[in-house]
Amino acid sequence: MTVHRRVVIEADGGSRGNPGPAGYGAVVRGAGGEVLAERSESIGVATNNVAEYSGLIAGLEAAAELGATEVEVRMDSKLVVEQMSGRWQIKNPGLRPLAARAAALSRGFDAVRYGWIPRERNKHADALANAAMDVAAGKTPKTVRTVEVAEPEPEPREVAAPDSPARAQARQVAAQARETAAQARESGAQPGGARADAPTARSSWEPRPATAATRLLLVRHGETERTAQRRYSGRGDVPLSERGAAQAAATAARIAALAPSVAAVVTSPLARCTATAEAIAGALGGTPVLPERDLVECDFGEWEGCTFAEVRERWPAEMDAWLASTSVAPPGGEAFIEVGARVRRAVSGLLQTYRGQTVVVVSHVSPLKLMLRDALAANDAFLHRLYLDPAGLSIVDTWPDGGVAVRAVNDTAHLVEG
């Protein structure tokens, strides 16, 4: 069986009556837009939202069966997209088991991102869902033949001569930036990392009681050989160096003295982070270590393992575009706007699960910078001005009304250079 690493899921669902005869449809597409799988089923009497979540679950299951590791979900249900992105609470108790099932499936992939699309761009899944609703209402046989609804082909454009490889790469980067920016606008993201629906607290100089806040102790993993060599280190699973292990031990001792009561140590699943997390958990007397895929480092694609100087020499145009916009990804990699979406999802989950408690979060440079950017309500320029040392510690308090206090950034007082 051919394994498709990156896929797109288009899902929809609906009911005739809300609640009424309901059904869902889901389509899984490959990188070239080809249909890899279809799912469609009537689910009896249900609400629109139940049907939409059912379509999402079916799409995620189909993507898993295809061996996908990275998934982009496109739906015209704003509610499902926002709830699965962690930006809206799930208030309807009937939807929580479905959302939990979708979240469990999502954790089986390296990355899952959600984007809203208008209904006219979700015609294939909509057609499948409507056919399933017809079945539920007794209007059609159980076997339903579906027809692919093709998108109109773009008008051909004449060029003076075939693009050179460099120009073709530049066109690809520009197209990717436009597409990602459009997806960000549709999903509610604002320039500079702010979100249209982000909770806001009344501004005040008055100190807040720390005991009511959820405290996140943000720790960058200890040093690796790639860190010392100034190489891009994304999804490559490199271990801590000897110095990095010593840094992890020093950080563990610092946290044990600073916060003896910690609910959990949540970590990126990569070895350099889990080793750092286990050192911290050991110093805390066996606090559980919980892996979280959304905390993994940015995928640097073709830049993985290269030095910064090598990337500047080999990909100058792509690097300039990447530095200029969080919507641009390294060749074959992941844009910061995509990393930010999954990081927010992880933080939202932590704030809901560990309300009023202290949690250690062990991750990488990019996710931690994005967390601090959002906590400080900064713009994207912050990402290139902040430096985070290996095993550096930052502290962020968040209150239930959305109030945030950044207590420390990149504290390295516990690290003694030998």
From TrEMBL:
Amino acids binding substrate = 272
User: What is the protein name given in its UniProt record?
Assistant: Probable phosphoglycerate mutase
* UniProt-listed Gene3D superfamilies: Phosphoglycerate mutase-like, Ribonuclease H-like superfamily/Ribonuclease H
Catalytic residues (UniProt): 221 (tele-phosphohistidine intermediate), 297 (proton donor/acceptor), 297 (proton donor/acceptor)
Which InterPro entries does this entry report, sorted A to Z? His_Pase_superF_clade-1 (IPR013078), His_PPase_superfam (IPR029033), PGM_Phosphatase (IPR050275), RNaseH-like_sf (IPR012337), RNaseH/PGlycerate_mutase (IPR014636), RNaseH_domain (IPR002156), RNaseH_sf (IPR036397)
Domain RNase H type-1 span(s) in chain numbering? 3-142
**Which organism is this protein's natural source?**
Micromonospora pattaloongensis
Q: Which NCBIfam families does UniProt cross-reference here?
A: PRK07238.1
Q: Bias category Low complexity: which stretches?
A: 139-149, 161-185
Q: Where is this region: Disordered?
A: 139-208
Q: Which SUPFAM superfamilies match?
A: Phosphoglycerate mutase-like, Ribonuclease H-like
Name of one Pfam family that matches: RVT_3
